[in-house]
Amino acid sequence: MVSVILGTQWGDEGKGKIVDLLAEKSDFVVRFHGGNNAGHTIYSGNKKYPLHLIPSGILNPNSKCVIANGVIVDLEVLVSEIEMFFSDGIEFKNRFFISDRCHLILPYHKALDLAYENARGEKKLGTTARGIGPCYADKVSYNGIRIYELKDWDLFSEKFVFQSEMKNKILDSFGVAPLNTERELERLAELREIVLPFITDTYQLLQKALSENKKILMEGAQAVMLDLDFSPYPFCTGSNTIPGAINTGAGIPIQKIGSISGIVKAYTSRVGSGPFPTELKDKLGDDLREKGKEFGTTTGRPRRVGWLDLEAVKFACEVSGVTEIIITKIDILSGLEKIKACIGYELDGKPIPYSSCGYLELEKLTPVFKEFSGWTEDIMQVKSFADLPKTCQEYVKFIEDFLDITVKLISTGPKREEFLEIRN
Ligand code: GDP
Ligand code: IMO
Ligand code: MG
After folding, report:
1. Is there an atom of ligand 2 within 6 Å of 132 CB?
2. Is residue 293 in contact with ligand 1, taking CB distance under 6 Å?
3. Domains of the chain, residue spans
């Protein structure tokens, strides 16, 4: 009854689009890790919604949307998303819930994220500057504040002032001006009023849903290659992104997970620094970026782009137990004479698996490519696999054979109806 949407690359595979599509068959859509570093794009008709916190099932009136305990929440961003939907007349009273256990991203987390990045200078990691790393660091060092604590304003204020003053000392050591604790607290008091009605025990809510055999869709954010443990650290995000995070981040037992759909973009993109073995730094890369509109949903930064890296995706599927593949953005490859995919890595003339590579190896190794013939036809309107150009079919079949996992669905455009199902 629990199914999972999981990015298998470096994020921005089109998870939001697929979650929105599958929401129709889901009673619950649940975010379980990460924060507003995520940017998931969905459409209502021609209206585009770049969502950072609210789950991508929100446009389906029959889905309940849950921000579970593993997510870290910036109240400012949350409230702006709530207000955006209210002003568009999208009603979600009684179908939007936030776990009381979520930790808060507070203004000093964002300031610290920036201060660390600036101090790193040329070695900066290229974070989204949303305070993700500092917030999760506070969580594990017992300096975090849970959303639950907003219920008692006096206690919350005391904790906030204490933390804020400590952080101001750290900021001062970076030469950064201190935050105005009082002003920040006043703003938090306003935001609190809007958010409190949505805060609840989502653990109970989800356990009840499980016991009633409701369909639950877990919406992964970021992707396996950004996992805190299985990435080439520190070129990662602050949370575990693999399905293990569903248990810790939403309280759902792992045995309840029925299917895990690995989202594979037909090529690769990455935002921020870090090794990228199949990166295209030439005109072809620039063209793909333009055609694929590869500019960050969260920060607007141009995304780095490259060929599909099946060596990395194979690892992502293996470590996550992916049971089926969904290919996205294959329409963007139309018109290319030749397409390449990386099918292995070599270092010093010897094969090396992705799992044995830290950033030192990933920067030096040579990707082994397989070349495919391209196709010229526009495929956005194609509705059956048999109607795809033969060379496009061959590319898909190769991915399926290489990963040894069934391709279930192919997305051929950003809109909900732009897809073709291979197997039901
Ligand atoms: P997410 O973070 O994985 O949800 O992905 P993003 O929303 O950040 O980035 C994916 C971008 O590609 C968005 O602009 C989507 O609207 C768009 N998109 C998703 N699937 C497809 C597809 O199959 N084809 C095309 N052309 N665009 C797509
Ligand atoms: P979605 O869910 C792409 C990247 C950042 C940076 C690194 C660390 O939309 O796929 P962080 O702010 O998390 O500390 O930054 O992780 N990153 C993403 N890249 N898509 C995302 O989310 C990302 N979330 C974080 O660019 O390299
Ligand atoms: Mg995104």
Report:
1. yes
2. yes
3. 2-102+200-261, 103-196, 262-421
Query: Each residue of 356-384: pLDDT tens digit?
Result: 999 999 999 999 999 999 999 999 999 99
Residue from 335, 328, 331, 407 nearest 41 by CA? 328
Tokens of 78: 């949350």
CATH code 3.40.440.10 for 2-102+200-261: yes
- Let me know: does 223 contact 11? Beta carbons within 8 Å: yes
Q: What is the pLDDT of residues 226-258, one digit of tens each?
A: 999 999 999 999 999 999 999 999 999 999 999
Distance from Cα 38 to the centre of ligand 3, integer Å:
5
CATH, domain range 262-421? 3.90.170.10
Distance CA 205, CA 407 (A): 32
C-alpha 272 to ligand 3 mean position (Å): 13
pTM of structure: 0.98
Give, for ligand 1, the residue of 268, 329, 412 to mutate: max count of ligand atoms closer than 8 Å to Cβ: 329
Q: 47-51 and 72-73 as β-strands: parallel, antiparallel, unpaired?
A: unpaired
- Measure the CA–CA gap between 416 and 196, rounded to whole angstroms: 32
Q: Which ligand is nearest to the CA of 271?
A: 2
Q: Which CATH number fits domain 103-196: 1.10.1670.10, 1.10.300.10, 2.30.39.10, 2.50.20.10?
A: 1.10.300.10
User: What separation in Å is there between the alpha carbon of 211 and the centre of ligand 1?
Assistant: 34
Ion ligand 3: protein residues whose beta carbon lies under 5 Å: 12, 39, 297
Give the DSSP H/E element, type plus range, for residue 357. Answer: none
Residues 115-151: tens digit of each pLDDT: 999 999 999 999 999 999 999 999 999 999 999 999 9
